Structure formats: C-alpha cells, structure tokens
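Suppose a colleague, Dr. K., hands you the sequence of a protein chain of 71 amino acids and asks what its three-dimensional shape might be. Before reaching for any lab equipment, you can write down a predicted structure in token form. Begin with the sequence itself:
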Amino acid sequence: MASASDASFTAHEKVVVTEDLPGVPAGTSGKVMLRTGLSWIRYRVHFDNGVEVPWLEAAQLCRLKEYEPSA
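The predicted structure, expressed as tokens, is then:
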C-alpha cells in the first residue's frame, strides 16, 4: 500500500483512506473538500459512501492512482 505520510493533498483531489475509520472501511475512495492547518495539516474528506470525515491526516490517505489494496 502506498504511504502518504509526507504527501500534501489539494482540495478536490481524489484520495483513498488507508485504514478503517468509523463508517468508512479502508479502501474507500473520496474527495478532499478542505485542507486546513499551518503546522499540523488536516483534511476534510467526503467519501463515496456518503460519509464526510474531518481532521484526517495525510498518513491516513493516499492518492487514488497510487492505491494498492492489501491482499
């Protein structure tokens, strides 16, 4: 699985969550709606299953085109 711990995502970028979250299983794709923070960057993501999650860190996400599901 791709790691995005040093990545920076922009608004409207397609991403995939890399770990299970409440209401959002790992591997669910979504779109970054907002990037916020100065020294601690967080993202608000609207997922394809209808759940919107605020305060995600880059380590919890990867770009859609870089996602490789774990076997």
